Amino acid sequence: MPLPSRTILHQDSITAIIPSVYSLNPFTSHQFKVQPLIYLASPVKPISIISLYNNGFRSISQRKTGAEFKDKNHEQEESSDYSELKQKLDEVGLNYYNSCSPGQYHLLFCPKCKGGRSSVRSLSFHITPDRTSAIWRCFTDECGWAGQVIPGSWTNISGDNQFGKRQKLQPLGDELIAYFAGRMISKQTLEKNCVMQVAGQKDIIAFTYRRNGIIVGCKYRTMDKSFWQEKGTEKTLYGLDDIKEADEVIIVEGEIDKLSLEEAGISNCVSVPAGAPQTVSIKELPTLEKDTGFQYIWNCKKYLNKASRIIIATDADVSGDALAEELARRLGRERSKCWRVHWPKKDEINCFKDANEVLMNLGPNALRETIYSMQLHHMYLFNETIQGV
Length: 389
Description:
Elements: E1 6-7, E2 14-17, E3 22-23, E4 31-32, E5 37-40, E6 49-50, E7 60-61, H1 72-77, H2 80-91, E8 105-108, E9 123-127, E10 134-138, E11 146-150, E12 154-158, H3 162-167, E13 169-171, H4 174-182, H5 187-192, E14 195-198, E15 204-211, E16 214-222, E17 227-229, E18 248-252, H6 255-263, E19 269-271, H7 295-299, H8 301-306, E20 309-313, H9 318-331, E21 338-340, H10 355-362, H11 364-371, E22 375-376, H12 377-388
Helix pairs in contact: 10-11
């Protein structure tokens, strides 16, 4: 698939970003063309490359010398910290490091309860990408074994998973796996994100919210779109661990949209936990303490402040527009930090609503192209106003 043509000029000049026509789905004749976006660039040094598919890390970079491209994996493999980590995992009976990829979440058989009465893979196990720590948790009612290992520091092990016991979660059954497959979400993506179900309830999905691998909240959904959340838990973004080191962050409106972007190869994405407001507030931005409806933004601000660009990919409806504006007010619209995704047309009048609709109808390549054909947020609103005249 041809990449969009892009021209980058030098400082004190105009930057033109002119996407080309994309063939969105190799199995259909559907095509769309994004209108050219021209904006005034602030003075910058000459740059060498723009990488669109960089999984959230810097998309604009200086040229690097060969000495900078060292084999980090080899250095990590031989590090003393990693050796100590493996030793501590051996001591607690978790010798999974040889078969589990760092940076990924794996569902395994718990060595304590052997999967419980159902003999299922109930242990969520995670080694951080830099191989400096490991986290695990068993979701069976009778076990709930959880812990964390950090070399050179401490090992924290608990045999009482109160959250898991209170929720009574278990791995997804065949019925819900088939439901997600119908929405083009794979079992691998579900396991990576620890999507569970309520024990004994075949139609209640449990989206687990995690910070540093530990579950801090849970949101429930039935297949007929009834939602509720666990009370008294931390308000945070869904998928927070996936943006810890990201220089570019994508925010969507629902958990399934977050999973949809992963199917398109984009993991530096989070979802808001509480849907969208009906309208944009005309009042001044409230203080942190009073901004209860967007507390999840303030709780995750240190992650979002690291990002040089935030791509807002909310739904293509009135509420989605209101949410995009409220997010931009809090995240830096005035610094040209926030960009907005404009979903492609599905007919002469209507657009696709969200990331999952694009994935289901046009495929992962089209979804990826759409995400990276965004516009500056204030220019998006300006263009929408002109089109409505």
